[in-house]
Amino acid sequence: MTVSLTVGLARRLEWGMAAANPRVLTALHQVAPHHPGALLTRQGVTAVYGGPGFPLNEAVGVGMEGPVSGDLAGAIEAFYGSHHHASVIRVSSLAHPTAISVAADRGYHLTHLGHRWVLDLTRWRPAEARPDPRVRAAEPLDELLWARTVDAGFADTDDAPPDDDLALSRAFFRMGGGAIPVMAHQDGVAAAAGMLDIDGDVAALFATATRPAYRRRGLQAALLDVRLRMAQERGCTLATIETDPGSASQRNVERAGFRLAYVAASLRRP
Fold first, then answer.
1. What pLDDT, on a 0 to 100 scale, did the predictor assign at position 2?
2. Structural domains for the chain
3. What predicted TM-score, i.e. pTM, was given to this entire model?
Protein backbone atom coordinates (compact mmCIF):
# COMPACT_ATOMS: atom_id res chain seq x y z
CA MET A 1 0.00 0.00 0.00
CA THR A 2 1.17 3.52 -0.80
CA VAL A 3 -0.30 6.30 1.32
CA SER A 4 -1.68 9.15 -0.79
CA LEU A 5 -1.88 12.50 0.98
CA THR A 6 -5.38 13.38 -0.16
CA VAL A 7 -8.57 15.02 1.07
CA GLY A 8 -9.96 11.52 1.55
CA LEU A 9 -7.11 10.63 3.91
CA ALA A 10 -7.53 13.88 5.85
CA ARG A 11 -11.28 13.23 6.16
CA ARG A 12 -10.60 9.74 7.48
CA LEU A 13 -8.16 10.98 10.11
CA GLU A 14 -10.15 14.02 11.22
CA TRP A 15 -13.33 12.00 11.55
CA GLY A 16 -11.37 9.40 13.51
CA MET A 17 -10.38 12.13 15.97
CA ALA A 18 -13.95 13.42 16.02
CA ALA A 19 -15.14 9.93 17.02
CA ALA A 20 -12.50 9.51 19.73
CA ASN A 21 -13.10 12.80 21.58
CA PRO A 22 -16.60 11.85 22.84
CA ARG A 23 -15.15 8.62 24.24
CA VAL A 24 -12.72 10.71 26.29
CA LEU A 25 -15.60 12.89 27.45
CA THR A 26 -17.58 9.82 28.57
CA ALA A 27 -14.55 8.51 30.47
CA LEU A 28 -14.07 11.94 32.06
CA HIS A 29 -17.54 11.68 33.58
CA GLN A 30 -16.64 8.29 35.04
CA VAL A 31 -13.55 9.75 36.70
CA ALA A 32 -14.95 13.15 37.65
CA PRO A 33 -18.78 13.27 37.56
CA HIS A 34 -18.71 16.95 38.57
CA HIS A 35 -17.19 17.92 35.21
CA PRO A 36 -19.81 19.33 32.82
CA GLY A 37 -20.04 17.70 29.44
CA ALA A 38 -21.92 18.25 26.21
CA LEU A 39 -21.74 17.09 22.60
CA LEU A 40 -22.82 18.55 19.25
CA THR A 41 -22.75 16.60 15.98
CA ARG A 42 -23.72 18.21 12.68
CA GLN A 43 -22.63 17.94 9.02
CA GLY A 44 -19.59 15.79 9.76
CA VAL A 45 -18.53 17.98 12.71
CA THR A 46 -18.27 16.83 16.32
CA ALA A 47 -17.89 19.47 19.02
CA VAL A 48 -17.33 18.59 22.66
CA TYR A 49 -17.39 20.63 25.85
CA GLY A 50 -15.86 19.19 28.99
CA GLY A 51 -15.79 22.23 31.25
CA PRO A 52 -13.54 25.30 31.53
CA GLY A 53 -9.97 24.55 30.49
CA PHE A 54 -10.79 21.14 28.99
CA PRO A 55 -8.22 20.88 26.17
CA LEU A 56 -10.56 19.00 23.82
CA ASN A 57 -13.07 21.86 23.76
CA GLU A 58 -13.20 22.26 19.98
CA ALA A 59 -15.24 21.36 16.92
CA VAL A 60 -13.45 18.72 14.82
CA GLY A 61 -14.22 17.91 11.19
CA VAL A 62 -15.06 21.43 10.05
CA GLY A 63 -14.99 21.55 6.26
CA MET A 64 -14.28 17.84 5.82
CA GLU A 65 -17.75 16.95 4.51
CA GLY A 66 -17.93 19.88 2.09
CA PRO A 67 -18.57 23.64 2.08
CA VAL A 68 -19.00 25.31 5.44
CA SER A 69 -22.08 27.48 5.85
CA GLY A 70 -22.79 30.33 8.19
CA ASP A 71 -25.55 28.18 9.67
CA LEU A 72 -23.04 25.50 10.68
CA ALA A 73 -20.67 28.07 12.16
CA GLY A 74 -23.58 29.66 13.99
CA ALA A 75 -24.64 26.31 15.46
CA ILE A 76 -21.10 25.68 16.76
CA GLU A 77 -20.95 29.17 18.25
CA ALA A 78 -24.36 28.77 19.89
CA PHE A 79 -23.26 25.42 21.36
CA TYR A 80 -20.15 26.88 22.97
CA GLY A 81 -21.91 30.12 23.85
CA SER A 82 -24.51 28.16 25.84
CA HIS A 83 -21.61 26.99 28.02
CA HIS A 84 -20.05 30.47 28.27
CA HIS A 85 -17.04 29.30 26.28
CA ALA A 86 -15.38 30.76 23.20
CA SER A 87 -16.06 28.90 19.96
CA VAL A 88 -13.01 26.89 18.84
CA ILE A 89 -12.83 25.05 15.51
CA ARG A 90 -10.16 22.74 14.11
CA VAL A 91 -9.51 23.15 10.39
CA SER A 92 -7.29 20.89 8.29
CA SER A 93 -5.28 22.43 5.47
CA LEU A 94 -7.15 19.93 3.24
CA ALA A 95 -10.61 21.05 4.43
CA HIS A 96 -12.96 22.83 2.02
CA PRO A 97 -11.67 26.40 1.48
CA THR A 98 -14.91 27.85 2.83
CA ALA A 99 -13.85 26.71 6.31
CA ILE A 100 -11.19 29.43 6.35
CA SER A 101 -13.24 32.11 4.59
CA VAL A 102 -16.24 31.66 6.89
CA ALA A 103 -13.98 31.68 9.96
CA ALA A 104 -12.26 34.87 8.79
CA ASP A 105 -15.60 36.59 8.13
CA ARG A 106 -16.78 35.70 11.62
CA GLY A 107 -13.71 36.99 13.47
CA TYR A 108 -11.84 33.77 14.29
CA HIS A 109 -8.11 34.01 14.88
CA LEU A 110 -5.35 31.40 14.82
CA THR A 111 -4.28 29.98 18.19
CA HIS A 112 -2.32 26.83 17.32
CA LEU A 113 -0.89 24.81 14.44
CA GLY A 114 -0.31 21.05 14.53
CA HIS A 115 1.40 18.76 12.05
CA ARG A 116 -0.51 15.54 11.30
CA TRP A 117 1.77 12.69 10.23
CA VAL A 118 1.06 9.29 8.70
CA LEU A 119 3.03 6.07 8.36
CA ASP A 120 2.33 3.15 6.01
CA LEU A 121 2.45 0.18 8.39
CA THR A 122 2.39 -2.31 5.53
CA ARG A 123 5.91 -1.14 4.63
CA TRP A 124 7.27 -0.13 8.04
CA ARG A 125 9.85 -2.33 9.71
CA PRO A 126 11.28 -1.79 13.23
CA ALA A 127 14.83 -0.51 13.40
CA GLU A 128 15.68 -3.08 16.09
CA ALA A 129 15.05 -6.82 16.08
CA ARG A 130 13.34 -6.76 19.50
CA PRO A 131 11.13 -4.22 21.25
CA ASP A 132 12.68 -2.11 23.99
CA PRO A 133 12.20 -4.06 27.27
CA ARG A 134 11.57 -0.81 29.16
CA VAL A 135 8.17 -0.41 27.48
CA ARG A 136 4.99 -2.39 28.18
CA ALA A 137 1.23 -2.04 27.97
CA ALA A 138 -0.18 -0.58 31.19
CA GLU A 139 -2.38 -2.67 33.48
CA PRO A 140 -5.65 -1.37 35.04
CA LEU A 141 -3.88 -0.93 38.40
CA ASP A 142 -1.42 1.45 36.67
CA GLU A 143 -4.07 4.10 36.04
CA LEU A 144 -2.95 6.68 38.61
CA LEU A 145 0.76 6.08 37.98
CA TRP A 146 0.24 6.39 34.22
CA ALA A 147 -1.78 9.60 34.67
CA ARG A 148 0.81 11.16 37.00
CA THR A 149 3.57 10.31 34.53
CA VAL A 150 1.72 11.94 31.64
CA ASP A 151 0.82 15.03 33.68
CA ALA A 152 4.38 15.42 34.95
CA GLY A 153 5.80 15.17 31.44
CA PHE A 154 3.42 17.75 29.98
CA ALA A 155 3.93 20.05 32.97
CA ASP A 156 7.71 19.77 32.47
CA THR A 157 8.24 18.62 36.04
CA ASP A 158 9.56 15.38 37.46
CA ASP A 159 6.37 14.71 39.38
CA ALA A 160 2.85 16.05 39.24
CA PRO A 161 1.87 18.08 42.34
CA PRO A 162 0.03 16.03 44.99
CA ASP A 163 -3.16 18.07 44.39
CA ASP A 164 -2.92 17.85 40.61
CA ASP A 165 -6.23 17.17 38.87
CA LEU A 166 -5.51 13.93 37.00
CA ALA A 167 -9.01 13.72 35.52
CA LEU A 168 -8.07 14.26 31.87
CA SER A 169 -5.16 11.80 31.88
CA ARG A 170 -7.27 9.24 33.72
CA ALA A 171 -9.98 9.75 31.10
CA PHE A 172 -7.49 8.99 28.34
CA PHE A 173 -6.47 5.84 30.23
CA ARG A 174 -10.14 4.75 30.44
CA MET A 175 -11.35 5.85 27.00
CA GLY A 176 -11.94 2.24 25.98
CA GLY A 177 -12.64 1.04 22.48
CA GLY A 178 -9.32 0.17 20.88
CA ALA A 179 -7.25 2.30 23.27
CA ILE A 180 -4.11 0.86 24.88
CA PRO A 181 -2.14 2.93 27.45
CA VAL A 182 1.60 2.21 27.35
CA MET A 183 4.34 2.90 29.92
CA ALA A 184 8.13 3.07 29.89
CA HIS A 185 10.21 2.39 33.02
CA GLN A 186 13.78 3.51 33.61
CA ASP A 187 15.73 2.43 36.70
CA GLY A 188 12.52 1.20 38.31
CA VAL A 189 10.69 4.49 37.76
CA ALA A 190 7.67 5.13 35.52
CA ALA A 191 9.53 7.59 33.31
CA ALA A 192 7.33 8.01 30.23
CA ALA A 193 3.90 7.08 28.94
CA GLY A 194 1.65 7.34 25.91
CA MET A 195 -1.55 6.11 24.25
CA LEU A 196 -2.33 3.91 21.26
CA ASP A 197 -5.90 3.99 19.92
CA ILE A 198 -6.92 1.55 17.19
CA ASP A 199 -9.95 2.30 15.02
CA GLY A 200 -10.34 -0.28 12.25
CA ASP A 201 -6.99 -0.41 10.48
CA VAL A 202 -5.84 3.03 11.69
CA ALA A 203 -3.65 3.43 14.77
CA ALA A 204 -3.53 6.85 16.43
CA LEU A 205 -0.66 7.66 18.80
CA PHE A 206 -1.02 10.52 21.28
CA ALA A 207 -0.66 11.73 24.91
CA THR A 208 3.06 10.90 24.88
CA ALA A 209 5.09 12.48 27.68
CA THR A 210 8.40 11.91 29.48
CA ARG A 211 9.45 13.15 32.91
CA PRO A 212 12.24 15.75 32.42
CA ALA A 213 14.84 13.78 34.42
CA TYR A 214 14.50 10.86 31.99
CA ARG A 215 14.63 12.69 28.68
CA ARG A 216 17.31 12.05 26.06
CA ARG A 217 17.42 8.36 26.97
CA GLY A 218 15.50 7.11 23.95
CA LEU A 219 12.22 6.60 25.78
CA GLN A 220 10.07 8.57 23.32
CA ALA A 221 11.54 6.61 20.43
CA ALA A 222 10.99 3.36 22.34
CA LEU A 223 7.35 4.23 23.08
CA LEU A 224 6.85 5.04 19.41
CA ASP A 225 8.45 1.79 18.25
CA VAL A 226 6.52 -0.45 20.63
CA ARG A 227 3.16 1.13 19.80
CA LEU A 228 3.82 0.74 16.08
CA ARG A 229 4.64 -2.93 16.65
CA MET A 230 1.40 -3.35 18.60
CA ALA A 231 -0.57 -1.68 15.82
CA GLN A 232 1.02 -3.88 13.17
CA GLU A 233 0.33 -7.02 15.18
CA ARG A 234 -3.34 -6.00 15.40
CA GLY A 235 -3.69 -5.61 11.64
CA CYS A 236 -3.39 -1.84 11.29
CA THR A 237 -2.22 -0.57 7.90
CA LEU A 238 -1.83 3.09 8.83
CA ALA A 239 -0.48 4.97 11.85
CA THR A 240 -1.03 8.63 12.60
CA ILE A 241 0.33 11.12 15.12
CA GLU A 242 0.23 14.89 15.62
CA THR A 243 3.15 17.01 16.76
CA ASP A 244 3.96 20.65 17.34
CA PRO A 245 5.98 22.09 14.44
CA GLY A 246 9.73 21.75 14.95
CA SER A 247 9.42 19.78 18.19
CA ALA A 248 11.52 16.87 19.42
CA SER A 249 8.47 14.67 18.82
CA GLN A 250 8.46 15.75 15.18
CA ARG A 251 12.08 14.69 14.79
CA ASN A 252 11.29 11.30 16.35
CA VAL A 253 8.38 10.59 14.01
CA GLU A 254 10.35 11.70 10.97
CA ARG A 255 13.15 9.31 11.91
CA ALA A 256 10.56 6.53 12.21
CA GLY A 257 9.46 7.16 8.62
CA PHE A 258 6.28 9.21 9.08
CA ARG A 259 5.26 11.64 6.32
CA LEU A 260 3.53 14.97 6.81
CA ALA A 261 -0.11 14.57 5.74
CA TYR A 262 -1.44 18.06 6.47
CA VAL A 263 -1.41 20.97 8.90
CA ALA A 264 -4.28 21.41 11.37
CA ALA A 265 -5.18 24.89 12.63
CA SER A 266 -7.08 25.70 15.81
CA LEU A 267 -9.13 28.87 15.33
CA ARG A 268 -10.88 30.73 18.15
CA ARG A 269 -13.68 33.27 18.10
CA PRO A 270 -13.67 35.47 21.19
1. 62
2. 7-117 (no CATH), 135-236 (3.40.630.30)
3. 0.93
